[in-house]
Design goal:
Radius of gyration: 17 Å
Subunit structure: Homodimer.
Number of strands: 4
Shape: globular
Number of helices: 8
Largest sheet: 4 strands, mixed
CATH architecture of the largest domain: Up-down Bundle
EC number: 2.5.1.18
Organism: Culex quinquefasciatus (Southern house mosquito)
Low-confidence stretches: none
Mean pLDDT: 93
Number of domains: 2
Strand order of the largest sheet: 2-1-3-4
Helix content: 55-70%
Structural class: alpha+beta
CATH topology of the largest domain: Glutathione S-transferase Yfyf (Class Pi), Chain A, domain 2
Distance between the termini: 36 Å
Order of helices and strands: EHEHEEHHHHHH
Catalytic activity: RX + glutathione = an S-substituted glutathione + a halide anion + H(+)
Pfam families: GST_C (PF00043), GST_N_2 (PF13409)
């Protein structure tokens, strides 16, 4: 299967981490978004929304939106339901956390730290407050469980961890969220390839910023 991605994209990293955890080999196709490689006619034929990550299966079906890809990989390769529970109630909790990440956590972290990272100025304090409010909700999820959707690693952790690490990398004050900090440390030693993939992302980001300055 082909995966169109960019390592600095948190949703792309979620897919890379899950594939690593499940032992799924992907044919990686890195797109230079700054160079407009996602806007080419060839890629638009694959994905008319021209976004990453995009997975293309062996039979030529293109799947985009990271959560859809995560679910597809889990349904296909996590046969025992260790990562994506078969129990409907547990699965619903995982789905809720995925929706929370997409519609609240990642949305607000990106809204505040995206412009900062790109040198486009500092968003208002109201936007920063929304980041803290989202992290407070995540803190409550983790008050009585080891992981985001229970006491075992699930798809939700793969989605949420890449969002949270954007904030921590950008020096967000995580001291107010001890449960989140504890969970991040647990993910680092539980998710296969976490340190390796995170380092590649950080190195790529530093390289991009250095090139921009020049």
């Amino acid at each position: 299967m082909d995966l169109y991605y960019t390592i600095v994209s948190p949703p792309s990293r979620s897919v890379l981490l899950l594939a690593k955890q499940l032992g799924v080999e992907l044919n990686l196709k890195n797109l230079n978004l700054a160079g407009g490689e996602h806007l080419t006619e060839d890629f638009r034929k694959v994905n008319p929304q021209h976004c990453v990550p995009t997975l293309v299966t062996e039979d030529g079906v293109a799947i985009w939106e990271s959560n859809a890809i995560l679910v597809y990989l889990a349904e296909r390769f996590d046969l025992e339901g260790a990562i994506y529970p078969k129990d409907l109630t547990k699965r619903a909790v995982v789905q809720q956390r995925l929706c929370f990440d997409l519609g609240t956590l990642y949305k607000n972290i990106r809204a505040y730290y995206g412009p900062l990272a790109l040198g486009l100025g500092t968003p208002g304090e109201d936007v920063l407050k929304q980041v803290d409010q989202a992290l407070e909700i995540l803190e409550s999820f983790l008050a009585n469980s080891k992981f985001v959707a229970g006491d075992s690693l699930t798809l939700a952790d793969f989605a949420v961890i890449t969002s949270v690490t954007v904030a921590s990398t950008m020096k967000h004050d995580m001291g107010k969220f001890p449960n989140v900090t504890r969970w991040v440390d647990l993910c680092k030693v539980t998710i296969s390839g976490y340190e390796e993939i995170s380092k590649k992302a950080l190195d790529a980001w530093k390289e991009r910023m250095a090139a921009k300055k020049n």
